Structures are given as structure tokens and as C-alpha cells.
Amino acid sequence: MAHLHIPDALLVKNYIDGNEVALSTLIKRHESKIYGFIYSKIADRDISNDIFQDTFIKVIKTLKSNSYNEEGKFLPWVMRISHNLIVDHFRKTKKMPMYRETEEFSIFSVMSDDSLTIEGKMILDQVEIDLKKLIEELPDDQKEVLVMRMYQDMSFKEISELTDVSINTALGRMRYALMNLRKIIDKHQIILTN
Amino acid sequence: MAKIYSKKALASKNLKPKKEVVSFLLSYSQALTVVKIENKSFDIIAN
């Protein structure tokens, strides 16, 4: 309280002369105005604190290096520094916008995880096991074509060459394989969906 | 009563930076020494 009536210019001078308490007085005297000014533009407490801190780091460096020459106009000078830092901040965020979770906006509305849940994975595994069992029920020639096409990713040309049949026969076997699979599924009312 | 359509002012008189920020600044100031040699200035931070 003793420092309350000392003008800013004198406090600045005292600080430059090595009186650290003078800085504390200056910060206490103006923190509300400066922080309020930053917050009015930024509307985020954490970022405002960062900018407030950066502002005073500049102030301290300038005063300690004796580069300050604005006698008696301490607050407008500090405000100008913080204003420049606010502009810098908006330039940066324009390039890389930051989204923060608020009541109206959930970050998860733009961020989602498409991978299956544990339950989904278990169901998928079960479906695959069931499907393999069903394939085992098919006649050998159809099973062979279906496995080569679906599991070994071979073309019908390759399949026809390997099984020594024409492409049309391979295609026909594939078609019958799928029809038979559907029949078995319908007959036993098996649900193969995730 | 008339409705107030203007946005609530963000700046309030009681807004203050975090105590940690002010305390950091005061410690930083105590630790910092700026030495000017010719045209160059060097920041020295004491531990």
C-alpha cells in the first residue's frame, strides 16, 4: 500500500536501478487492466494467462536492458505489447485453429474412432468362424473356387488355370457356391451381421 | 422490462491473472540479468 502513490515512472526507474519490489507493485497495480484487456479479446483464461506472462517477460527484458524510453507512459506501453502479442496469437491460430470443448461444442463431434468395440470385434470373429464352417459344407469344386477367390485373392483367370477348367466354369462354380451358402444360411436362419 | 440484447462484456473488473503467473514473473525478473556488450545483449538466467 505504501507504493500506491508512487508514480509509474518512478517505479520503473527504481526497478531499472535494481529494486525488484517495484516490479511487483507495477504488476499488482495494472494486472487487472492488462489481463482484462487480453481476456476481452481472447476469451480464454489459459491463453490470456500465457499472453499476460509473455507481455511481462518482454517488459522485464526491455527494462533490464535499459531499452525503455517512454517516460511516464508505462501502462499504454505495456498495453501495446500485449496488443501485439494478441495479434500474433490470432495470426498463429488462423493458420492452426484450436478447438476447445465447451458446453455447446463437443470435440468428439469432429473426432471419432471408427474402430470396432470389443463386442463388435467378438461378433466379427464369431461371424468369420461361422462362415468358415458353412464354407466347409460346400461341394469341393465350389469350395475350392470360393476360397481361392475370397481368401487367396486370386483372379478367375488364375483360378481357371490352376484348377484346369475354363473361366466360365470357375465363374459358375463361384456363383453356385454363393447360392448354396445363401441357401444354408436361410435354411438354418443364421444371422451373419455385425 | 426492456431486454438487453447486447452481449455480456467479457472484461470484468475482477479479472486477474493466475497467482502462479505473477509469481513466475517476479522470480524470472530476479533471476534475469541482461548484459549489453557493444551492440549485442545477452540474457543470463541465474538458477
UniProtKB/TrEMBL annotation, chain A:
<dbReference type="GO" id="GO:0016987">
    <property type="term" value="F:sigma factor activity"/>
</dbReference>
<keyword id="KW-0805">Transcription regulation</keyword>
<dbReference type="Pfam" id="PF04542">
    <property type="entry name" value="Sigma70_r2"/>
</dbReference>
<dbReference type="GO" id="GO:0006352">
    <property type="term" value="P:DNA-templated transcription initiation"/>
</dbReference>
<dbReference type="InterPro" id="IPR013325">
    <property type="entry name" value="RNA_pol_sigma_r2"/>
</dbReference>
<dbReference type="InterPro" id="IPR007627">
    <property type="entry name" value="RNA_pol_sigma70_r2"/>
</dbReference>
<dbReference type="Pfam" id="PF08281">
    <property type="entry name" value="Sigma70_r4_2"/>
</dbReference>
<keyword id="KW-0731">Sigma factor</keyword>
<keyword id="KW-0804">Transcription</keyword>
<dbReference type="GO" id="GO:0003677">
    <property type="term" value="F:DNA binding"/>
</dbReference>
<dbReference type="InterPro" id="IPR014284">
    <property type="entry name" value="RNA_pol_sigma-70_dom"/>
</dbReference>
<dbReference type="InterPro" id="IPR013249">
    <property type="entry name" value="RNA_pol_sigma70_r4_t2"/>
</dbReference>
<dbReference type="InterPro" id="IPR036388">
    <property type="entry name" value="WH-like_DNA-bd_sf"/>
</dbReference>
<feature type="domain" description="RNA polymerase sigma factor 70 region 4 type 2">
    <location>
        <begin position="131"/>
        <end position="169"/>
    </location>
</feature>
<dbReference type="InterPro" id="IPR013324">
    <property type="entry name" value="RNA_pol_sigma_r3/r4-like"/>
</dbReference>
<comment type="similarity">
    <text>Belongs to the sigma-70 factor family. ECF subfamily.</text>
</comment>
<protein>
    <submittedName>
        <fullName>RNA polymerase, sigma subunit, ECF family</fullName>
    </submittedName>
</protein>
<feature type="domain" description="RNA polymerase sigma-70 region 2">
    <location>
        <begin position="26"/>
        <end position="94"/>
    </location>
</feature>
<dbReference type="InterPro" id="IPR039425">
    <property type="entry name" value="RNA_pol_sigma-70-like"/>
</dbReference>
TrEMBL record, chain B:
<protein>
    <submittedName>
        <fullName>Uncharacterized protein</fullName>
    </submittedName>
</protein>
